[in-house]
Write a sequence for this structure.
């Protein structure tokens, strides 16, 4: 069964891949620069950086597979197909792990919710490995595709169903995991809506993944490749929104003369405080209060006297 409608040319897929990869790399690089500037790099940033590396590898594989495959022997063409199939999973699941560890760093070490989230991260890794193995199993048990001039394995409905189930469940976890944390802190309703909206952006990845699964089940050819490219790039961009969006909101607040509060993500207090989430609240009439990272092992005391004095002066 093949998909209907006009087909995409390889050069069109490559152009879209280049544009989306550059965009994802810019967003990820900005996120890493912001974290490096604040000296608060953590595991979630490592997964984002790995996702950026994987997306460049996916771009290289797509270019060689779609544009220059005739230059290579058949074994190399087959290897290129496996390369793009597996780097697709690498980008998507490293992006999900980055989002999940962004939520983990907002929790207090030793608490039940933190342990549950870390267990979920391990589950994500197992799912990634299973999906990786499923592609190898299906393609190796039907080797007829390997003799095609432009080899592409017909993954079929089983892979499409597995992707739909894992994508929907994985993104659902990423959407609802921050909810209990957000509602425990003292934020105004607009602030809570804004924070939850950022984390809920994983729904975009879910929608794109459903389209990709459709083309997998219908042997969509270049459309399947295009949908995979879009899903991988969108996954990486969404993984960086919590950091990048907060940065631009903070810039907007600094340029605005009206009092406004900004919540940023990823920084947490080194001491056990009432609010488990890291916040930086900046107002026109108050001094900024910055809480540092809970994920670090050393606990330095907060300078409460200076903080109190600064607030009184404000």
């Amino acid at each position: 069964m093949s998909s209907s409608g006009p087909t995409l040319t390889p050069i069109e897929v490559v152009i879209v891949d280049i544009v989306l990869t550059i965009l994802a790399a810019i967003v990820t690089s900005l996120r890493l620069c912001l974290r490096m500037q604040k000296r608060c790099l953590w595991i979630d940033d490592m997964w984002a950086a790995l996702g950026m590396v994987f997306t460049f590898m996916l771009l290289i594989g797509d270019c060689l597979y779609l544009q220059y495959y005739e230059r290579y022997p058949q074994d190399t063409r087959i290897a290129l197909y496996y390369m793009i199939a597996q780097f697709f999973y690498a980008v998507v699941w490293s992006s999900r792990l980055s989002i999940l560890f962004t939520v983990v760093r907002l929790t207090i070490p030793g608490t039940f919710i933190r342990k549950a989230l870390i267990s979920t991260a391990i589950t994500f890794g197992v799912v990634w490995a299973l999906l990786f193995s499923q592609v190898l199993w299906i393609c190796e048990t039907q080797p007829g595709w390997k003799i095609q001039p432009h080899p592409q394995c017909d993954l079929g409905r089983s892979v499409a169903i597995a992707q739909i189930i894992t994508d929907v469940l994985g993104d659902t976890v990423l959407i609802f995991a921050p909810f209990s944390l957000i509602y425990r802190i003292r934020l105004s309703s607009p602030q809570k809506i804004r924070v939850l909206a950022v984390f809920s952006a994983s729904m975009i990845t879910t929608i794109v993944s459903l389209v990709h699964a459709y083309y997998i089940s219908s042997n969509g050819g270049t459309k399947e490749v295009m949908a995979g490219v879009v899903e991988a790039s969108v996954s990486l961009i969404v993984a960086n929104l919590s950091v990048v969006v907060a940065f631009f909101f903070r810039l907007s607040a600094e340029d605005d003369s009206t009092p406004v509060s900004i919540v940023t993500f990823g920084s947490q207090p080194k001491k056990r405080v009432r609010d488990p989430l890291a916040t930086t609240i900046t107002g026109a009439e108050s001094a900024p209060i910055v809480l540092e990272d809970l994920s670090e092992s050393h606990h330095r005391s907060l300078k409460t006297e200076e903080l109190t004095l600064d607030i009184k002066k404000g």
